[in-house]
Amino acid sequence: MEKTKIIVDSTGDMPLEWIKKMNVDVIPLHIFWEERGISEDDSRNYDDLKKYWDDLDKEEDLPRTSQPTPVEFKQRYDRYFDEGYSSILVITLSSALSGTYNSAIISAKEYGDKVQVIDSKTASSAIALMVYRASELLSEGKDVITVKEQLLKEMEQKRFGAFFYVSNFNFLRKGGRVSHFASFVGNMLNLRVSIFINDDGEMIPFGKSRGAKKAQKLVISKAQEFFPKGSKVRLTMVHSRNEEECLKLQKILESEYQVSESIITPMGKIISSHVGPGTAGFGIEKLS
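^ thats the sequence. predicted structure below, dont judge the formating
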């Protein structure tokens, strides 16, 4: 049986329980503060993340972020082949949002079929669901190429989705992740903007509301355009200093769907830097 290592970048917002259960390696993206220097998106410690969210609120300018370099990916590949793995599967943040996929691909070329890289075309906790699915397929004895082909097929079938709302749209505007026209709708006080990730891996704002209840209704309504009410699903709830609203959103989803599994995880530093504190949302995987 082929021994495969899964590597995910730190934007995947993997729950700690899943990282340990699936023996996943997380390669961090980098954070550059003007005054504080360089740090890594390498912590899933809740207290550490809460401090980082507070820092985001205090600073006038957002930190810059960058992907792992090809050299950093090569170091990971070499490490796991030296440890006896026969293949590696890498799942990255959407290439429409980051150059991480390109770094992983550049380094993978010298290893032939032994390293397979997937552009998730999504972000955050939806990537965690893809990793979960990959781990399932590998546990069934499938080789890394078959697993990649299966995941790509399921992506086309819209098996995975990401939906969330932000409480301060200025973070997305400052980070350049949406157009200036789209950011205009989010500059009103206390306005929550709902966002989903489309088939091209881009973040698309689709609704605005005042208050959490309306925002939650909007994101669930949007999700049900792709994941019909009553479907059997797996959920990964995610938030950036907004656990209370995330729990309420989870409760509503559990009443709308047949939920086989649901877990809550905080957003890592990179994703939080772009969407800001106060964000809540979910990744969803259609099981039937």
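The CA atoms of residues 117 and 283 lie 21 Å apart.
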